[in-house]
């Protein structure tokens, strides 16, 4: 099935055997120990996923495998390959090295400082360089050469670059050419499938027009990645985009808590945020969902390891220096929310994301509920023991206090899942 399980695979950072994690934005595979360092640096440096225990969109995994097999790691270790660097005493980490400080220092230098990436000759105007690189990216994505594009992105090419003469973005080009792995890479680097070109068309439009059905469907998924991930976190399912269902809003069973004055006030506050601030909060919550899920996978896969958990835990979101200190503090506070509080926040964000996208949430809610129920009927829940109540997902509404909580179910499922590993 997968070409991945070959014994020759080694950790990109320490050359240790059998790497079981991937860094998606770096296009590499890494071992548990190095992964613990990657996690501590934050998603803005490295987006880690477990190769077996994290659900993968197939083409995203294919992108990482392709990059890894084609030597993407040399992008991050460019100057180490230069014989002159041997003179300087710089070297890769070894599998036998200690995580702290040896592996950690190497990994920080490699990805945080980009100490070994090939530097372009200095120019007076950085923006000119970035523009040139972005133009190169724009033309490279029509080919299948992923490493070239990752190299350009690593040097500062912009995934969302709008080409002034061509009137479109790299993702438009990749979509037109049916380059699904390039589209995955661009999306990891923040390309937006909903961007319009000079004639008002999106990359999704071009993928459909060109008959690239899988790519078109995948781009729709990418467009809803944030809210889909939040819904999946709570209820283990994603909306059925192909049938026009773009949001699942799980509902808490004990709505008494939902209806507390405090919760109402929080909801009001959320609704009053500008779109920009709401997007920031939603992204922060997404990062926290990722931290919690990756933590769960981490704990589940480390049972028999000698790693000391205290030194490898990521107790709250690492600081992203590009964010204000207020935002970083807010992000870290998300770790203090207990499962119920966090689920409530996630549901509020999902409801409000839907409201902001579709306008009045009650107007189309009935159709949406029906669609969700149809989806439930055709897709029996994995969990069987407490299915005495139907697994309703409903548009959050104060009039339905009796619905089963998918959120608490999901958290039960998670704790069950943890024990099972
Ligand atoms: Zn390693």
Automatic annotation (TrEMBL):
Is rRNA processing there in the keyword field? no
* InterPro entries documented for this protein: Ankyrin_rpt, Ankyrin_rpt-contain_sf, ARFGAP/RecO, ArfGAP_dom, ArfGAP_dom_sf, GIT-like, GIT_SHD
Gene Ontology BP annotations: brain development; regulation of ARF protein signal transduction; regulation of G protein-coupled receptor signaling pathway; synaptic vesicle recycling
**Naturally occurring in which organism (per UniProt):** Vombatus ursinus (Common wombat)
Q: Where are the ANK repeats?
A: 166-198
Q: Would you name any one GO CC term?
A: presynapse
Could you name the domain of life of the organism this protein comes from? Eukaryota
- Biased region (Acidic residues) positions are 385-403
Give me the ranges of the annotated region Disordered. Answer: 356-421
Arf-GAP domain residues are 1-124
Q: Which keywords does UniProt give here?
A: ANK repeat, Metal-binding, Zinc, Zinc-finger
Q: Name one GO molecular function term.
A: zinc ion binding
Q: Pfam families from the xrefs?
A: Ank_2, ArfGap, GIT_SHD
Comp. bias intervals (Polar residues): 405-414
Query: Which protein are we looking at?
Result: GIT ArfGAP 2
Q: Does the keyword Zinc apply?
A: yes
